[in-house]
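Narrative of activities, Objective 1.

The group set out to show that a structural description can be obtained from nothing but a protein's sequence at a throughput compatible with the screening campaign. Below is one input-output pair from the validation batch, recorded exactly as produced.
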Amino acid sequence: MSDRSDNPAPAASGFWRHPQAQIALAASVPLALGLMVGGYMLGDGLTRAKAYERSVTVRGLAERDVTADLATWTLSYSATSSDFAAAQASVDHDTSAIRAFFKELGFPDDALQPTGVNVIRNEPVYDRAEARPATFTVRQRVALRTNDIARAQQAVRRQFDLVRRGVMLEEGSGIAYAFTKLNDIKPAMVAEATRDARASAQQFADDSDTGVGAIKSATQGYFEVTARDGDSGGGNWGAADTPFKKVRVVTTVEFSLR
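Output recorded for this entry:
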């Protein structure tokens, strides 16, 4: 009986000793490692992408009380007469009275400028009850433009002095106050609104046990100027009537969460 040690090696072991099998094994090891690393990186990338998708969108508010720096007062008045020269003389008288009024208040002569004049010829009327000749209406408009807001307010308070001088102002002869330095405060207000938005995002993150990351997107919104003491629900109604105004901006910001 022959010894088992004399038996030839299994065919399989002979296969692995074959050069082509060794080459195939050497090539498969890097491939397997590459698949393992690629799978890990893919999984890690998906995890990071999923984390990047986590975000919160909030709004930030900034408000500031300001005082107007420009006052514009348009005064319109007219006179009607059957004699054109008489109508024109009446308007000239009113113009002189208005200029004297503002000069007494300390405004320079160039603060008041004419803005328009027109003449209307009213056709004569002939009927059985009444006959009226043709008349002429001369209408004049002048405008006060000043940066002296306190002095402008004083003029408005004393406008009935013009009535006592015989000047009858027409409807629409009102003063308007404007704030022209909006660009000077925009950057600071946008920064304030962004900080307010981040505070809201932080509160959300605290409640969700997460952290606030970088800004993903932001929309500034528009600046609104309203009357400071007006009805907040009334839009811009009455904003031009007062020198005391409120500037408001709302930003919409999307923050990533980590």
